[in-house]
Amino acid sequence: MTTTRHALPAPVEGVVQLDDGRTLAWQDSGPPEAPAVLWLHGSTGSRRTAPQANGIRVIAYDRPGYGGSAPHPTRTLPSDADDVRALLDAIGIAHVAVLAFSGGSAVGYACAALIPDRVSRLGLVSGAPWPTVPAPTDTLLQSAADSLAADPAAAVANLSGAAAVDDRVLSDPPMRERLVTGVGDAVAAGTEGWVTEGRLIRSDWPFRPHEVRRPVLLWHGLQDDAVPLASVLPWLEQLPDAHLERIADAGHLGWMAQESRILGALATA
Question: Collapsing DSSP states into helix, strand and coil, what is residue 220?
Fold first, then answer.
């Protein structure tokens, strides 16, 4: 497996003060003049899980209640899209490509549907589909959050399944450390943010696939047990402009073995 993340300079970090008094913690890596990609971390992640690649500017932020960002008392997917707009305004970026992982895909779809003037295209890696069953109870979500907080490393190991490419990802120390750090960040300020997101992304989304107004590029492992590809395909057919690349021998984390290529394809499509 090849990765260039460790050879790149450390990201610039900051905090955005929002109109409602909340704060969002963000980071910015890569040349300012380079094509920009906004990273939306998975539900068990944070801005510090953002991929990096030479020649690409990657913006990342912690969603409400994650890492260094304040919780949102009435968080919705439209409020997430508003947060993205405010973040881009504060940083001074007119529009970006968006790359979302796993549960972050709900926010990615919201951005493409609700603020299409700021999004050039949407990329999804191991992206969660539209919810089709009722959200888990808060009791179940709280139990899962408590497990994450108790052992972040075990939570990461459980995401890999038995896929060969995922095993190679987790055998790379910087990759594994990045994932474990993300799990820790997700519950660092308490489990409220994680439970809120778990409920939000598994409840009915306030837009439909035909309202996603930007091209969608998807990369999905054929052995993904966390988000099976079969659960994504029915929605893929309803998106106005979508392209799927299947990744052989990969599970939920396998896309990370080729994140530089994926970032490049998304940034320059």
Answer: strand
For residues 96 and 201, what is the distance between their CA atoms, to the nearest angstrom? Answer: 23
Residue 14 backbone zone (phi > 0: left; psi -120 to 50: alpha; other: beta): beta
Extract the tokens encoding 48: 């510090």
How many Cα neighbours within 13 Å face the side chain of 258? 17
Beta bridge partners of 217: 123, 243
pLDDT digits (tens, 9 = 90+) for 71-111: 999 999 999 999 999 999 999 999 999 999 999 999 999 99
Convert the pLDDT of each residue in 19-68 to its tens digit: 999 999 999 999 999 999 999 999 999 999 999 999 999 999 999 999 99
**C-alpha radius of gyration, the chain, whole number:** 17
pTM: 0.95
Give the Cα separation of 160 and 156 in Å (integer).
7
* CATH 3.40.50.1820 describes domain 5-268: yes
Q: Identify whether the C-beta of residue 19 lies closer than 8 Å to the C-beta of residue 86.
A: yes
DSSP SS3 for 255:
helix
